[in-house]
């Protein structure tokens, strides 16, 4: 079932309104289940490790995740919409 674009726009506005790490924590803890939050956090950790050129097998061992999860993250980093690369660069400037 396709998500109406107005729903996505509302969600993007919601995330854009976050002004602090504390606000982000409050929002994410309410909008995601604990499992979804853990999955998103795991994805961000593996993307950071991939961008630092860590070998996939080392990432798999360190994070205790499957190679297939790392491959999916790698695909998104290389061929996704550019969000990961943008925020990796943005966060490493600070």
What descriptive keywords fit this protein?
single chain; mainly alpha; 94 residues
Topology summary:
Blueprint: H1 5-16, H2 21-31, H3 34-51, H4 56-63, H5 67-79, H6 83-93
Would you kindly provide a written description of the structure presented here, covering whatever features stand out?
With 94 residues, the protein is an all-alpha fold. The radius of gyration is 15 Å and the shape is globular. The termini are far apart. The mean pLDDT is 94. It contains 6 helices and no strands. It has a domain of 61 residues. The longest helix has 18 residues. Helix 3 crosses helix 5.
Order of helices and strands: HHHHHH
> Tally the helices: what do you get?
6
Counting DSSP E segments of at least 2 residues, the number of strands comes to 0
- Percent range of helical residues: over 70%
Main β sheet profile: none
- Residues in β-strands, percent: under 5%
Low-confidence stretches: none
Radius of gyration: 15 Å
Measured between the Cα atoms of the first and last residue, the distance is 40 Å
Average pLDDT figure? 94
CA-based shape: globular
